[in-house]
Amino acid sequence: MSASDSHLQRKLQALRDSYSARLPGELEEIERVWRVLADGDWDPANADLLYRLAHGLAGAAGIFGYPQLSRHAVSLEQLLHRHLDEETAPDAGQRAAMERLLLQLREAAGGADTAAQPASGTENDAHRPADDPHHPLVYLLEDDAGVAEELALQLAHFGYRVEAFHDSAGLRDAVARRHPAAFIVDIILPEGRNAGLELMSELRHREAPEQPVIFISSRDDFEARLAAVRAGGDDYFVKPVEIAALIDSLDRLTQSVESEPWRILIVDDDATLAAQYAAILENAGMQVETVTRASAILKVLSEFHAELILMDVQMPECSGLELARVVRQQDGCEGIPIVFLSAETSTETRRKALHLGGDAFLTKPIDDDQLAAAITVRAERARFLNTLMLKDSLTGLLNHTRIKEQLAVEVSRARRAGGPLTFAMIDIDHFKNVNDRFGHMMGDHVIKTLARLFQQRLRRSDSIGRYGGEEFAVILPDCDLQLAGAILEEIRALFSAIRFAHKGEGFSVTFSAGLATWPEYDNPGDLNRAADEALYEAKRLGRDRIAVAGAQP
What we know:
- By secondary structure, this protein is an alpha/beta fold.
- The protein has helices at 3-39, 44-63, 67-86, 92-108, 145-156, 168-177, 195-205, 222-230, 243-254, 271-283, 297-304, 320-328, 347-355, 368-390, 400-417, 431-438, 440-457, 481-497, 524-540, and strands at residues 137-141, 161-165, 182-186, 213-217, 235-238, 263-267, 287-291, 308-312, 338-342, 360-363, 421-428, 463-468, 471-477, 500-502, 505-507, 511-518, 546-548.
- The protein has a five-stranded parallel β-sheet with strand order 2-1-3-4-5, sandwiched between helices. It has a five-stranded parallel β-sheet with strand order 7-6-8-9-10, with helices on both faces. The protein has a five-stranded mixed β-sheet with strand order 12-13-11-16-17, sandwiched between helices.
- Helix 1 packs antiparallel against helix 2 (44-63), helix 3 packs antiparallel against helix 4 and helix 17 crosses helix 18 (481-497).
């Protein structure tokens, strides 16, 4: 474990120790307020105070390893909420139910889930500079300082910077100075049961209308969710918050991913017309190459990797219909959409065009906007279908076949350029236990979380694939063994520090990895086998570690 790992581990443990130390006092305060209510008239002000105390306990207990305590606190909160909303006092039976819950709170306080503590962590990204544009700033409004710090540490693993506030005034002052990328706000605050909702409704209408808002609460009823929507909430999470799901939401709400422009190949013997079509499509944001001689198309296809071909039907060297058949015979070109463009209106010509490999037929002359719209629709559809074939449906990473093909491509490139190349095989440790204990949906959450961590921490030039099940593969071009090991070690430490939650129970997960490098292993098959053997060596040595092919343990 590195020094930074050890430091964050101590910090996380200190938070939980601090919570355990203050827990008896919180329970005593809950019991004190209850005795005031039980011994006298049902005072709405004290009932509201008890509700807020139960709400705070429900959220914090789940995060800090007391799942049973959290569930009992949620039950007490729900009972109180009903009477506060209806402005009624509980009858004898309902008071007895509250008494039982108070007894269960005291009993559950002795049952911390110490097994849920993460094995290690890292603080490399826990304190990003305030002006770092690559790590979105999040304002967190949570009156429990321990819960706020724990959430901030967890979010930092995924590159988010968090400024935590414990009351409405602090958040107002911060918004006046600078807007965040997003808000995470507890519904219930010391100012009132709906203070978080009221504050964000006001801010969304006046000062921060564009910033997304995520509400968190121990309440899971329809009324609370509806009120959150009416207050401008974009998402809603029940405490204890599932970090993987929260990151999903933050990524979706804050990160606008710029898609690469569609790559369009125009084939037309009239250079002027080809230039005109190219200008229209480039103006619509596409990347365009033109070919004015049919014989040049194969070379261009091998270099340009077109996603759609716009082809004239009538050309001097050969017809567009003949050229389409030539294109279809090339490896990798079987599925490229071909859109024919011609002044020909014959139904028979159109039929032949579609039969011989065409996907659409546009008639000249064509309006500029109509051409751009027609190509956009078809290129978008083609990319979507191509993604389905190449990407894993759960993670969005390259699938097994595609990552192996990419390894062959990168080995060939390394041979030409002479640079280093590292290949890594990664496997989530004891993943079957996660599925057996928490269910397959939770297992999918764990897989998606690790996939996202790879996507955020690796370079755009690196290739990431889901090799199968809980196994991943990573290709790092121009990256020697030492650098690759340091990168994977950082990701390993980050992943092991992430806390997952299921029905109030927290847990953490680790992974093992095996590394192999080119040119030590000269071909893709040897490289793959060597990394796989190193992975099994890491497992044999105890898991939660990285092993190198051919190295001594």
